[in-house]
Amino acid sequence: MNDFRSFLQNDYIPLLQTLQPHQQPKWGRMDAQQMVEHMRDIFKLANGSIKMPLMDKNPTHVEKKRAFLLTDLPFPQLAKGPGLPEDPIPHRAAGMEEALKKLKPEIDAMFAAYDADPALQLMHPAFGELDYDLQMRYMQKHVFHHLRQFGLID
């Protein structure tokens, strides 16, 4: 997971900067800027600045979802997270450059939160309480899902 941490801290934003604002996704309805803003929200959830309750309280369902995090399987192309609206959220930043500038501090805050408290567990609405290792597994699946969605990786 140290390689993924390094990727997020050093390579992720430069890779996203290669996106064209009107680049079409291979699947889904979010445009490039909406995806970047969505990922900012995901990192805010992962650093504790956004709080959401567990959506499905059935322990069997949660355990199945958590077990998925331990696999090498990617997120399905049209996977939809709990609590997300059917239609993409309208742009909140003035443009892609501003959206990308707002993303980096949230990534740094996620690492700072877990570095400050290695025992930290933060609630994810689908996967339950995530410690650092499970958070990194979730983030890796989620980040790569959207990078594939926009053709930035295979």
What is this entry, summarized?
The chain has 154 residues and is mainly alpha-helical. It contains 5 helices and 2 strands. The chain has one domain (2-19, 26-80, 89-149): Four Helix Bundle (Hemerythrin (Met), subunit A).
Question: What is the strand and helix layout of this fold?
Answer:
Elements: H1 2-16, H2 32-47, H3 59-69, H4 96-116, E1 122-124, E2 128-130, H5 132-149
Antiparallel strand pairs: 1-2
Helix pairs in contact: 1-4, 2-4, 2-5
Summarize the structure in words.
This is DUF1569 domain-containing protein. This protein is mainly alpha-helical and 154 residues long. The chain has a single domain (2-19, 26-80, 89-149), classed as Four Helix Bundle (Hemerythrin (Met), subunit A) (Up-down Bundle). 53% of the residues lie in helices and 4% in strands. It has helices at 2-16, 32-47, 59-69, 96-116, 132-149, and strands at residues 122-124, 128-130. It has a two-stranded antiparallel ribbon with strand order 1-2.
